[in-house]
Amino acid sequence: MSRTIAENSMVVLLQGLQGQVTTVDLKNESTARGRVVNVDAFMNIRLDNVLYRDRRGQLTQLQDLFITGRNVRYVHIPDNVDIMKTIQSQLARIHRVRNFASHGGGRKEFATKTK
Amino acid sequence: VQPTTNTVEEPLDLIRLSLDERIYVKMRNDRELRGRLHAYDQHLNMILGDVEETVTTVEIDEETYEELYKSTKRNIPMLFVRGDGVVLVAPPLRVG
């Protein structure tokens, strides 16, 4: 399984909202309020425990909802979220994974180079 | 979310000058946003604080064919805006 990473994009902020309850306004004039399970680099969003309101105002409860990134108009950011801190911690997480194998030479038992 | 220079080199740099300022955003589907720009990226995804969204609709009177412009406003404390809906970004419009 491979994963596309967005580190130069504001999507990293949305990824930091995992676990929070937010409202997503869709381009088709409907809204979905639920807990953010996951957001990927394409802004595809997975929500659970969702209250979905269609453009006419009709409410539906959904256990699980997958929203394609292209369908997102807005994401309401909860009041308690610190934008800068969230972005910084997300970027730190990406760089930690990236540097995992390179710094320190990787696994020591296969070290053939001597400094 | 990128390291920045101090000179204006490309159009996106003009948006950088508006960071932390109030801006006006014209969006697709007859929407406008007025809010404080906290962050943006190359896709024009933006984080706006203290936002007022205005949605404008036109109703045509069936008898007189008059155009009736209505606008609906709402306020949102902090909003992430997906860039593909953005048409233009400008300093807030001043009247007069």
From TrEMBL, chain A:
One of its GO terms (cellular component) is cytoplasmic U snRNP body. Residues 9-81 form the Sm domain. InterPro entries: LSM_dom_sf, Sm, Sm_dom_euk/arc, U7_snRNA_Sm-like. GO terms for molecular function: histone pre-mRNA DCP binding; U7 snRNA binding. GO terms for biological process: mRNA 3'-end processing by stem-loop binding and cleavage. This is LSM10, U7 small nuclear RNA associated. It comes from Dicentrarchus labrax (European seabass).
UniProtKB/TrEMBL annotation, chain B:
GO terms for cellular component: Lsm2-8 complex; spliceosomal complex; U4/U6 x U5 tri-snRNP complex; U6 snRNP. It comes from the Eukaryota. SMART domains: Sm (SM00651). GO terms for molecular function: RNA binding. Pfam families: LSM. Residues 10-95 form the Sm domain. The keyword RNA-binding applies. Keywords: mRNA processing, mRNA splicing, Nucleus, Ribonucleoprotein, RNA-binding, Spliceosome. It is found in: Nucleus. InterPro entries: Lsm3, LSM_dom_sf, Sm, Sm-like_LSM3, Sm_dom_euk/arc. One of its GO terms (biological process) is mRNA splicing, via spliceosome. The keyword RNA-binding applies. Its main location: nucleus. Component of the precatalytic spliceosome (spliceosome B complex). Component of the U4/U6-U5 tri-snRNP complex, a building block of the precatalytic spliceosome (spliceosome B complex). The U4/U6-U5 tri-snRNP complex is composed of the U4, U6 and U5 snRNAs and at least PRPF3, PRPF4, PRPF6, PRPF8, PRPF31, SNRNP200, TXNL4A, SNRNP40, SNRPB, SNRPD1, SNRPD2, SNRPD3, SNRPE, SNRPF, SNRPG, DDX23, CD2BP2, PPIH, SNU13, EFTUD2, SART1 and USP39, plus LSM2, LSM3, LSM4, LSM5, LSM6, LSM7 and LSM8. LSm subunits form a heteromer with a doughnut shape. Belongs to the snRNP Sm proteins family. PANTHER family: U6 SNRNA-ASSOCIATED SM-LIKE PROTEIN LSM3. Plays a role in pre-mRNA splicing as component of the U4/U6-U5 tri-snRNP complex that is involved in spliceosome assembly, and as component of the precatalytic spliceosome (spliceosome B complex). The heptameric LSM2-8 complex binds specifically to the 3'-terminal U-tract of U6 snRNA. This is U6 snRNA-associated Sm-like protein LSm3. It comes from Dicentrarchus labrax. The gene is LSM3.
